[in-house]
Design a protein that fits this description.
globular, alpha/beta, 253 residues, two-stranded antiparallel sheet, nine-stranded parallel β-sheet
């Protein structure tokens, strides 16, 4: 499969790329986080806009995106408004959610957008269409903070995201035990080896699932999330430690 290239970062090629989230509530906090992240070696930055206190006012979102772009230089930016239903900070009406992602993609300051699969096929395809028209890549995501679905269900969800036109399908699940982590890894390997024609992102959350954030190169996940300060999800490791482990595994393969 061909990697997804964003500002020279090739997702799906070589060592899994490290994405670091920004979860600031004010513009000042967001920009300060951006300055910090730009020094730790992140491959991609995810701006979690659901944390931003002015997320309801797009002109402020756009201006913050512009300033963040200046701070980060050439580091790709993934724009994510994670809704409350999938572990985010707030709910958003579907039409507003679609419009926000479309406008972010068209702003000129964002390289990728995340749209949740549970928003529905029409919402997903509407965001993908708008994003692709301006050269922005789309991560279609699904998060289950309660459980780990069966392997067949995980694979089915990832395949559906691919069919809808996601540049990168993504799924994150919560393990109840160690066997659940194996289920996620088995689903990742099956999707990668049998069905995927583009990079995928998978992870098992919390401490139990942390191994899944480290072994993506073995099983087929192209990107992992690390923390530089406040984490955006349970189980994220500090970037420095994450880079060491990923590099050690890569050298052994």
């Amino acid at each position: 499969m061909d990697p997804v290239a964003v500002r020279g970062v090739k997702i799906g090629e070589g060592i899994p790329k490290i994405c670091v989230p920004i979860v600031g509530r004010t513009r000042e906090e967001i920009l300060e986080s951006g300055k910090n992240i730009s020094t730790v070696g992140a491959d991609i930055v995810e701006w979690r806009a659901d944390w931003y206190e002015d997320a309801a006012t797009f002109e402020r979102v756009k201006e913050t995106a512009r300033q963040l772009r200046d701070v980060l230089g050439g580091i790709p930016v993934l724009f994510t408004f994670r809704t409350a239903g999938e572990g985010g900070e707030r709910a958003l009406e579907k039409d507003v959610y679609i419009e926000l992602n479309q406008k972010a993609a068209k702003s000129g300051y964002i390289d990728m957008v995340d749209v949740e699969a549970l928003a529905g096929d029409e919402a997903v395809t509407a965001v993908i269409k708008a994003a692709h028209e301006c050269g922005v890549k789309v991560v279609v995501s699904n998060h289950d903070f309660q459980k780990t679905p069966e392997k067949e269900e995980i694979v089915s969800r990832l395949r559906r995201m691919q069919e809808l036109g996601a540049d990168i399908p993504k799924i994150a699940v919560m393990p109840q035990n160690r066997k659940d982590v194996l289920t996620l890894l088995a689903a990742t390997e099956e999707m990668y080896s049998k069905y995927a024609d583009r990079p995928i992102i998978t992870m098992s959350m919390a401490g139990t699932g942390v191994i899944s954030r480290l072994c993506g190169e073995v099983f087929g996940s192209a990107l992992t999330f690390g923390a530089a300060g406040k984490a955006s999800a349970p189980g994220q490791m500090e970037v420095e430690n994450l880079k060491k482990v990923l590099s050690l595994l890569h050298e052994s393969l």
